[in-house]
Amino acid sequence: MADFIRFLNFLYKKKWLLLAVPLLTVIAAYFLVQKLPDEYTSTARIATGLVDKTDQGFTGGGNEQQSEVTQKFDNIIQSMQLKNTLNMVSYRLILHDLTQPAKAFHKPSKPVQELSSTEKSRAIAIFNQKLSTQQDLFIESPEEKKLLNILQSMHYDTDAISGNLTVSRVKDSDYIRVEFDGDDPEFTAFVVNTLCTDFISRYSIRLQTSNDRSIEFLEKFMNEKMRNLTGLMDQLKQYKIKNRVLNLNEQARSMYGQIIDFETRREVAIKDVVAYTAALKNIDNKFNPSDRRYLESTLAAINQNIVVTKQQLRAANDIYFRSNFDPKYKARLDSLQNKLTTQINQSTDSYIYNPLVAKTELVSQKLNMEIALELAQNSIATVEKELVRLNRKFDGLVPNEAKIQEFETSIDIASKEYIEALQRYNNAKMQSQQITQLKLIEKALPGTLTPSKKVILIVFSGIISFVLCLLILFLVFYLDNSIHDAKQLANSTDIPVIGTLHKIDTSSDLTQLWHDPSPSKSVLTYRNALRSIRFELDHELTTGKVIALTSLRPEEGKTTLLLSLAHAFAMINKRVLIVDGNFSSTHSTSLTPKAVYVEDFLHTTMPLESLYVENGIYSLSNNRGDYSLFELASETHIAAKIAELKSYFDVILIETPALETRNKAKEWIQFADKVVAVYEAHTTIRDSHTPGIQYLKSLGDTLVGWVLTKATTVS
After folding, report:
1. Is 517 exposed, middle or buried (0-12, 13-18, 19+ CB in 10 A)?
2. CATH: 3.40.50.300, 3.20.20.120, 3.90.460.10, 3.10.20.580. Which one for 486-711?
3. pLDDT band with cut points at 50, 70 and 90 for residue 62
4. How far apart, in whole angstroms, are the C-alpha atoms of residue 497 and residue 593?
5. pLDDT value at 663 more than 80
6. Do β-strands 651-655 and 497-502 pair in parallel, antiparallel, or remain unpaired?
7. Contact assessment for residue 29 and residue 457, using Cβ atoms and an 8 Å cutoff
8. Per the UniProt record, which residue ranges are transmembrane (predicted)?
9. What does the angle CA 358 – CA 362 – CA 368 come to, to the nearest 5 degrees?
């Protein structure tokens, strides 16, 4: 808060500067803005179709996100402000003025006036060529650089146009507003309408070209996928024809069923062989050797016939198995079976048995079982051969199945790719019929006169200059490290401040401070401050009488304070002596021209009553010279003289040199009972003053504190 108040005081002192600078700025701005031409504004509106799709019919798509719509608007707006787009407007403007001088928007500039008829024709041709090819002027070409300078001189260049052009979306609507400010109403309308129509044409062509390229690419991509799919399907067909594959799954299923059937038949035949072999062995065990010989000799002829029939039956049975049980072989197999049965019956009807033994039935069973055993054994061999053939044929189907699956997988992938490509192609075709069409729904009319900005510019110039001036003053105040008040001084030095004396006119007699019947406010303030300092010093002098006044630098107001304190103590009936101990300065000496010198006082004996006295104040001046106190007399002698003075006076005020002189000030301070340090306000404590401050702190209780002099007050 204290810093803020101090800043306000600082501003108050600079009040005339704060008033003068804005006032001068306003006056200068007033005369400058009088030369500004009037401004006209033309406005046009473009419908984009991005939000309002009424004119597009059925789109077939979902609603776009707001962010996508906003991004499309931004792209259109930025495209309208591209340098190449504005260059086309520049070309049309300059061509208008060159081809129709009577209707020119601006007066011909000096470069235009300097063009010859040939050069003008050449310029028109180049501008038309650049306009048709939509190219920019190349600054590397001297000829085109000259044309660019012509555009700039007529204020038709892109920088001049973009500086007065505003392109924006109308809130969240479907429209884009295009505004242009200029010094001629026809000029502003021409710029806006030319920009809108040219951009709409270029945008539509660019969008259509982009869509055509996309459709062409998608069509080629779709045809490629279709050819790939057709090729794979043709490869599969040729492979099936070459490998005689009709229906691989059905063939494999039928063949696998046959293998299972034959394996079942084989198991049945093996079981029959085992059963018949065991049965025949049991029958043989029931015959004795003589019966078997009789039986074998008797049946030899019959058995030959039966063996022949069995061979024929075995052959027929083998053919029947290999034909996969074809019915046409079944008749022959049945015929041979009946013939074999008849032959077996004949063998049993013959009287071949031992009459003593009735084993006819066993012999018949044995014969039938032997035939069945041979048939079963023959069936096993036939079934095994057929199983080997079927397995070999089934194994041949596995590579076909793998190859066909490979073809079918490739065809499935190719089919999906083709369908996706077809869908993308159809979508692109549909979207190409629904391209967003920009429409100029509101053409720009000749510009209307805009409210004058001159007053606003004048007011702003004053405000800106005032703020700038205020900012500069704040920086000056902020960067100012000087001491302005007692609090700053105490905080910076860690030494108390016993009083503050403001600036006062010291050219007149200081006695008027106390005897003026109607003092001014500043005199009254100064007088009260002196009383406060006098009270503090009088309180400190209970055990002494000598007060030394010193400072960090010369010319900080020690003499004024010395004389002011002398008068202040005299007002309370104190016998006061002032001693000018600052040999290198003569301020106090010049104020008391008839005073006795310190040098004479130290070397001679004189009554103290003979000292110069004025207004009840005694004084000892010096004769000036470059020497110190101890160079005038010994320390003992000086102490004796000081004691002599203390015996006669109530208060002895000594002005010492500044602490910059080091020993000169310290020699006087050595004989002082109290020390008062004087500091001039609005000055800065520097690093060179640090030893002097440390010395004052080392004095301890001898040091009373600072007196801040030459402070300023706000009247």
Report:
1. exposed
2. 3.40.50.300
3. very low
4. 33
5. yes
6. unpaired
7. yes
8. 16-33, 455-479
9. 145
Mean pLDDT of 251-267: 71
pLDDT (average), residues 88-108: 89
**∠ at Cα 494 (493, 500), nearest 5°?**
70
Measured CA to CA in angstroms, residue 191 lies from 15, 157, 188, 250, 610 at distances of 49, 12, 5, 80, 102
Name the burial class of residue 454, with classes exposed (0-12), middle (13-18) and buried (19+) by CB atoms within 10 angstroms of its CB.
Answer: middle
Residue 611 in tokens: 């000292």
347: Cβ contacts below 8 Å, ≥ 6 apart? 299, 302, 303, 306, 367
What is the SS3 assignment for 239? helix
More confidently predicted of 519 and 21: 21
Every domain of the chain and the residues it spans: 1-28+452-480, 29-214+437-442, 248-424, 486-711
- pTM for the full predicted model: 0.45
In sequence order, the 6+-apart residues with CB closer than 8 A to the CB of 633 are 602, 603, 641
* Alpha-carbon span 42 to 447, nearest angstrom: 4
Top pLDDT among 270 and 500 is at 500
Q: How confident is the model at residue 548 (pLDDT cuts 50, 70, 90)?
A: very high
Which among 372, 363, 362 is positioned nearest to 340, based on CA atoms?
372
Task: List, as one string, the DSSP characters of 4-35.
Answer: HHHHHHHHHHTHHHHHHHHHHHHHHHHHHHTT
Task: Specify the pairing of strand 703-711 against strand 497-502.
Answer: parallel
pLDDT at residue 28 greater than cutoff 80: yes
Please check whether residue 123 is in contact with residue 98, taking contact to mean a CB–CB distance below 8 angstroms.
Answer: yes
**Strand runs (DSSP E) across 92-188, as ranges?**
165-169, 175-182
**Whether 56 contacts 49, CB under 8 Å:** yes
* C-alpha dihedral, 19 to 22 to 27 to 32, nearest 10°: 170
- Residue 696 · residue 704 · CB < 8 Å: no
Average pLDDT for the chain: 80
- Please name which of 358, 384, 702, 354 lies closest in space to residue 548, comparing C-alpha atoms: 702
- Read off the tokens for 624: 């000036």
DSSP classification of residue 542:
G
Give every CB contact of residue 372 below 8 A, 6+ residues apart in sequence: 272, 276
User: CA angle, corner 271, sides to 269 and 273, nearest 5?
Assistant: 70
Burial string for 75-105 (b: 16+ CB within 10 Å, else e) reads: ebeeebbeeebbbbbbbbbbebbbeeeeebb
Question: What is the full DSSP assignment across 573-624?
Answer: T--EEEEE--TT--HHHHH-TTPEEHHHHHHS---GGGSEEETTEEEEE---
Q: Kind of pairing, strands 651-655 and 596-597?
A: unpaired
Q: Which residues contact 378 (CB under 8 A, 6 or more apart)?
A: 314, 317, 318
pLDDT of residue 395: 58
Q: With 80 as the cut, is the pLDDT of residue 376 above it?
A: no
Q: What is the pLDDT of residues 566-606, one digit of tens each?
A: 989 988 889 999 998 888 765 555 555 556 888 888 888 87
Q: Which two tokens stand for residue 255?
A: 């063949």
At 645, list the tokens. Answer: 């003075």
Which of 270-274, 352-356, 407-411, 613-617 shows the lowest mean pLDDT across its residues?
352-356
